[in-house]
Design a protein that fits this description.
Layout (H helix, E strand, L loop, with lengths): L5 H19 L9 H11 L6 H9 L5 E6 L5 H7 L6 H7 L2 E5 L7 H14 L2 E6 L2 E2 L8 E2 L2 E2 H10 L4 E4 L1 H5 L12 E2 L1 H4 L5 E3 L6 H14 L12 H4 L3 H4 L3 H5 L10 H4 L18 H4 L23 H4 L29 E3 L5 H11 L4 E6 L4 E7 L2 E4 L5 E2 L2 H11 L1 H13 L1 H8 L7 E2 L2 H11 L9 H8 L12 E3 L11 E3 L1 H13 L4 H23 L2 E5 L1 H8 L11
Parallel strand pairs: 1-2, 1-3, 3-7, 7-9, 10-18, 11-18
Antiparallel strand pairs: 4-8, 5-6, 11-12, 12-13, 14-15, 16-17
Helix pairs in contact: 1-3, 2-3, 2-10, 4-10, 18-19, 19-20, 19-23, 22-24
Bound molecules: ligand FSX, iron/sulfur cluster and FE3-S4 cluster.
The site of ligand FSX has 14 residues, from helix 4 and helix 8.
Amino acid sequence: MKTPNAIQVLEQKLTSRLDSVRQTRARMDLAHLHTWIGEHLSLLGIPAQHLDMCVEILEHMSDMKIIWLHLQECSGCTESLLRTQNPNFETLIFDIFRIEYHDTLMMPSGYQATRVLESTVQNQHYILLVEGSVPMEDAQNYLTIGERSGYEDLLHTAHNAQAIFAIGTCSSYGGVQSAAPNPTQSHALSEVLQREVINIPGCPPSDKNIIATLLYYYLFLESPPLDRFHRPLWAYGKSVHDLCERKGAFLSGKFAQDFNDEGMQEGYCLYKVGCKGPYAFNNCPKVQFNAKTSWPVRAGHGCIACSEPNFWDNFGALESPMRQQSFFTYQSKCMPKPKNLPTILHQSLRSESAKRDFLACQSLSKCLFVESNPESSTMYLYADGAFAQILTLSFETNPKLLLQVIRSKNKQGQSLYENYRKAFGDHTAWIDSLEETSMMSTNLYDAFKSVLVLFGVREAKSADLLSFAKECKFPYVSPFGLKLKQESIQQEGQIAGYNWNLNKALSVALAYCVGGLDVYGLSYSLAREVVDMFMDIAKEQDCAIVCEGEIFTHFLTHSPCKTYLVKQ
Ligand code: FSX
Ligand code: SF4
Ligand code: F3S
């Protein structure tokens, strides 16, 4: 029997949900919200052909109640939701989302309010939305509501809730209050509750991210697919940078130098004045805020990565690019582990017989062997009893020729080249004086060296990049888009090979450096991307990976990856 595809699975789920709600629940007419529901389904990636079915499920869900708890926060999340339009907030709460209890918005107060809360909790047919972080331990009583602490209120309301949503970065990750030195010992919901929490971070999150995620839950009675920080992928799957309207300026090397210059008026990229869009995962450029009026970058300030865990501590100075000196603290926090990472083993197994002994000893029928050191870069795949060399690297390493390729690619490349010349003045004159002889290489380490030369380290040696990378204090990757591509010609019975296009990644790296990323951030990002590239192949091939070389031992054991790597 053929396995159903994603659309068929979705249809089956919706059909069975419809059957079930039809039997058990009353129906309310939502015909007037058809278009609005359709827009949200498209955000969620649910095809328009299911609109009628979805509307009917929602019509039967009008008895689902919501408790909205306020803990340590500024009420910005509520403010964000209040500004929703077409339909407005009032229509939403009367027709779909029946918010029974909400400290700041509800009419009743005192005993009347408590009675509403208690009867909703007893009735058990509700979901819990929490805004704000939870003060704990000695600081628990810093937040009291009536006679209970915030934590006690949370436990009380969470117990019978059908699902729990953390609204905003405070409840998702602790937010600003949990920034060092965290005087109120504030925690994220997921750190103090023993059950699944769906995080909708952002300080504040957009109305759309709150509403569409709730709609998804009402439709399926389950959480949407989540990322490793428990955020819905539909909203937090792409970086702010990748969706940003100023990305063209970034790739052309056009950066505002300060908040008053002409570049600011021309819509230049804000990386140099501190934008953290490349490190923040959120759909702000797409859904925006205040009834789709604007979003931070359009309003003229860089993204401060407000939807990331520990954003206040981890992202350095708000209005400077990522550089060693703009970075002050880093609080490592335990976050959920990503699934499906390959098993990683660090070994030196250069000869084929050593590899075979190892495979027999571990009872592995498939395995990837990667070696990267100053002498060579190789990758072998062992499958069906045989080894195949599946890495074919070949790239130019002469910095002068590399720049010529970038410059001649298109208008963007030309502009990037010119802005690079302005930013790296004297150094470009030195590159101009180099010979034009081609220097092709097949070793990653040679690429490391030429990248450093482009960024002003004239006497760079191939291992220097790893030394800079190790010193980097800023543990986020500036993505260059380095990827090994599977060879397109794949004959039957043959294992595919991998190749890469260094030039494309190099243009992006050049843009970051013109924008003010320093050599530490550059080196760290390049090294991490190389490691991730090999991990992706192991995932793709669904096998263990054996790595040899300093780049692996350091970056897999001493970096933030450590928390989620399986080592044997
Ligand atoms: Fe404020 Fe909400 Fe920030 Fe926190 O939003 S906007 S402090 S995420 O909990 O109220
Ligand atoms: Fe937009 Fe910021 Fe990326 Fe520049 S760095 S393109 S302003 S998100
Ligand atoms: Fe926050 Fe950045 Fe969006 S600051 S609101 S994640 S643009």
